[in-house]
Amino acid sequence: MIEFVKPSVDYFELWPLLLVFGVACLGVVVEAFAPRAVRYITQVVLALAGLVGALVGVVLVAQDVTTYDDGAARGILAVGGTIAVDGPSLFIWGLVLALAIGGVLLFAERHLDGGMSAFAGQASAVPGTDAETAAVAANREHTEVYPLMMFAVFGMMLFPAANDLLTMFVGLEVLSLPLYLLSGLARRRRLLSQEAALKYFLLGAFSSGFFLYGAALLYGYAGSMDFARINEAVRNDVGSSSLLLIGTGLLSVGLLFKVGAVPFQAWTPDVYQGAPTPVTAFMAAGTKVAAFGAIMRLFYVALGADRWSWQPMMWIIAILSMFVGAALAITQNDIKRLLAYSSVAHTGFILTGVLGLQASDQLAPGEITSVQAVLFYLTTYGFATIGAFAVVSLVRDAGGETTAIERWAGLGKESPVVAAVFAFFLLAMAGIPLTSGFVGKLAVFSVALAAGAWPVVVAAVLASIVAAFLYIKVIKVMYFDEPVGDGPKVAYPSVLTATTIAVGAAVTLVLGVVPGPVLDLAAVAGEFIR
Amino acid sequence: MILTILILLPLVGALVTAFAPAAVSRLVGIGFAGATLLAGIVAAVQYEADAGMQLTETHVWIESLGVHYALGVDGLGILMVLLTVVLVPIVLLAGWRESDAEGNGGAKAFFAWTLALETMSLAVFTATDVLLFYVVFEATLIPAYFLIGGFGRSGRGRAATKFLIYQLAGGLVMLASVIGLYVVSADNGTPSFLLSDLAAIDIDPITQRWLFAGFFIAFAIKAPMFPVHTWLADTTEKATPGTSVLLVCVLDKIGTFGMLRFCLGLLPDASQWATPFVVVLALISIIYGALVAIGQDDVLRLIGLTSLSHFGFIVLGIFVFSPTGGTGAILYMVNHGIATALMFLVAGFLIQRTGTASIREMGGVEKSAPVLAGFFLVGGLAACGLPGLSPFVSEMMVIIAAFDHHWLVGSVAVLAIVLAAFYALWMYQRTMTGPGIAPVQDLDRREVGIIAPLALALVLFGFFPMPLLDVINPVVHDTLAGVGIAQETQEAGRQ
């Protein structure tokens, strides 16, 4: 009989996490009791206040944390060692919260589609029935999206901070379930949206099963769910290595599914296309950041000593992701699908940074580390992605958003500003200098090459060329092709979407020209608590 | 400071031009181009021949990656800077009306993008940090892309995409080598991208070869060399002549500039190791470029392809590793810039008048437009290396050096003189003489004013190349000393 010990909760360090969770619960209460007329404004204000408060909390905590156990890492292990509030956690928290604020602003946008948000009037009404017509006529819209999103944000914060396999699984589920729902709530093209949600749910549930199975096997190997104990077991080479290897493989399936790495990328284009564009923006940026945080923690902290086993696997997956993502993106004729495949390619580039893990004694003083490079890349990618999808939500015709690429022809003349901003985001994704994407690529390629993974870097360079073609193709359509029919129309957004786009573009430019401060911040974030 | 001012002036000019009222945007643009020209002249006056890298500025840019905002010029740099600041105002004046014509992207955009391109080019020629060089090297592509895609003949969007893909591919391959240099420097202690730090590192020969491959592929695409030249003809055919001047006479020089600075400067062993291969490619470029040029019907395409041949000479001069060859190559870079700019601009004026770029549909222009024909002839004769015009000096030096290197190399290279005479004079004969098309208007005073300085420069440097040689010789001396080749006489280039 194991005696249950009540863990002590470090309320100060966990404040940002708890605040987000509290606001999410409060949102559910609001949904139950507040009259319909005030729900929208209450939910938006509540969500924004919660996120901003949590962001302030992250900054305060980050200034307060001290060195852990005389090691290189700073931070604490909270709640009985299950949650690590360390430098990388705090960096990712800050990033996720900043992206979530952008997400809320996009969710709340009502100017683009005749005074209504992008979400369905009544999700339970079958498309094409009277119930749906009635919901549309009554100008209804779902405001549950805000608490759902806050739950997802909570999951995105817990996932990368989890310091044992069970907590990580909880984080994974809390992050995923609200996103499955959110994907199915589009106001227009509802069947596509519901199909996306179902696909995402089924495949996601399946991959969670893999994760859980892997966790069980690893527990069988190490006798503990705790990352530090697993690390110890790996170092001492206890037990059967086949349990370790199979467990690692199954855990990787669950995690790589979330970041959309090849061969687990099949859901990305359908979900990115079907989900309401604000959800796509938030999900694409936030999930990737959170899941890469979790991947790094699992592989560096728990399995760092076993890296000769998993690095070859990462090599192959990184190379496949880059090439398959870039090559399939070229064949797409829908802008959201194109961005989805491009995100698969970016997953490959980020993995290039992840596999650049080196022991600290192999690094020259001042040389960029793998964690630093990946955190920086995630920052650049997150802001560029959320900005790019926000721009996608502006280009519309009578049937809602026009996502067919050929309909974007002539956008350069129709709306020079929108076209220029979108072109800028594309150039950032292509990694052209003086945009953040270039410095991100430079950082991850550098750590990979320093770790001796030159074949991956060569492949990454070749894949970058393929990817560059794809982004240039879109720019060419916008600027140099003749418009089809009337050409695209650009809806004027309210200050909400405009702010998100402006901040995304500003961050993309600033990180391209003066990346120093954020790189330094990522360096200060330093190492995981081991 | 002067170099920073030089770089910032056109950038500010580009922004002001872009936001200025359409009525004055051209005046604003030319004003900034003129100011940049003045700044370039000031820099040239401050420059002292034979004093190595100078006018330097160094500031830390990205500390954790060892990147510096570091500028400086040697003789090669200052000549390229001068070439750039001189050609940009000329291009802007030549595009004064044309860029506003129906179907083009508007004069304002043309002026703003051209100034943006000037900023990036000047930064490329003055950067003394490898990553800074790379950043601006790639950044030149964006203005160039919009200049090609926004102005010129139909099909230019496609040409612009082809151009950008080629250049980005080269750039990304080079990125691998740039990162490789970073890793090498990190392995040697402190990560740094400064040229001076990197030059001090003794890189092992095998690593050098890999790094060399990355740099050389990028610079060969840029220069361009056979077999990665195919973007060149399409681009020059579709773009406006002004854009082609910027691309071929300024931007492409980055290729040969980079070979001297990075391949020879940082990777001397690998450069010597690759010499046979590069020399063969250069010879193929020389002969192939000239042969293909002969067969062209499109004037602009023809001129573009002649550059393939000329760049072959420049690369040959660089890679024979002799004082005469090196000096000839750098001199060639300047002369080619002037002569080809003249050819492109005159051809542009010709096409405006005849309404076609097809050589077959022209003829007899010299009867109605003798001045235009005269300038065209000067440009053509310069291209085929007539003594008395400046390209002759540089071409002779490269050929002499080629014979010194190996008699076979020299005798292949010398064939190009015959071919050049053929394409240049045959083009002149078919367009300007014989039974004519309807009479065309001759060049007006504005147009003569734009191109006359170029023609004068060709004659001037044809007879007095000394001022250029005084600046070039120290660079060649230093570069060859770095490669480990003793120099018999520093005055070798002065015959």
TrEMBL record, chain B:
Q: Which residues cross the membrane?
A: 75-95, 131-151, 163-184, 210-233, 245-267, 273-295, 302-323, 329-351, 371-393, 405-428, 448-468
According to the UniProt entry, what is the EC number of this protein?
A: 1.6.5.11
The record gives the membrane topology as: Multi-pass membrane protein
The answer on whether this UniProt entry bears the keyword RNA-binding reads: no
| Keywords assigned by UniProt, alphabetized | Membrane, Oxidoreductase, Transmembrane, Transmembrane helix
Enzyme class per UniProt: oxidoreductase
Which Gene Ontology terms cover its molecular function? oxidoreductase activity
**Subcellular location(s) per record:** Endomembrane system; Membrane
The NADH:quinone oxidoreductase/Mrp antiporter transmembrane domain extends over 127-419
- Family as reported in the entry's similarity comment: Belongs to the complex I subunit 4 family.
Q: What is this protein called?
A: NADH-quinone oxidoreductase subunit M
Organism name: Nocardioides baculatus
